Amino acid sequence: MRWLALLSVVALLGAAPAHPAAKDKHIALPDGTRIDYLEVLPPDYQRRKDWYPMVLALPPGPQTRDMAEAGIARWRRQWQDAGWVVLAPWAPDGQTFNGDASKHLGPLTEALAKRYAPDGTKFHLVGISNGGRSAFTAALAAPDRFHSMVVLPGLPTSAQTARLGELTDLPITLVVGSEDGGWTSGSADTAKALTDVGGKVELVVLEGEGHDAFQQVTHARLAGWLSKR
Q1: Domains recognised in the chain with CATH numbers
Q2: Element spanning 219, H or E
Q3: Mind listing the pLDDT tens digit for each residue in 111-125?
Q4: Buried b vs exposed e over 74-86: b needs ≥16 C-beta within 10 Å?
């Protein structure tokens, strides 16, 4: 797929020496499941001295380590410069977070909140494509653990659409290309469903873009969406 090739190119971008590289970390869930993730820290990070704004970034495609890295590469250094922490998990054992590993997203969010103590004990949630689908699962599993949610793009399942009333306190931004087929129409339907239940939703359609529309999103724009409360 075109977006997969583009993400792979993005993942190869180098980082300036002043920006610490992403580190491989892991955490054990209460049931013993190990979840690996990438940890991106600002240069002056001091663990638990202050609360930091934190992003939980769910990867696209097969949700492997490579996809976790590619999914954050476009904005990594800007996040670091702005003093944000980014945590990008990948799914275990060849699973996906919108498939068999979906059951881990709630416990994973709680475990990471205990380890990192994010700003207000809440994360900002970002997902690309399959990560956007997974973001709806994470938000519904732990709605009180998120300040905001941005999917680029992302859609709920039909069963999750019936539960969108549980997310009315969560600002959600749906970003999609105008030429992304079912993702485009599905995002519009999701925005309407959220509006109908009183949700805080913004639909952003990037004209002329397809499934890799996220490549056109600047960090400043993304940070603006994430800063909604």
Answers
A1: 2-11+21-226 (3.40.50.1820)
A2: helix 219-226
A3: 999 999 899 899 999
A4: bbbbebbeeebbb
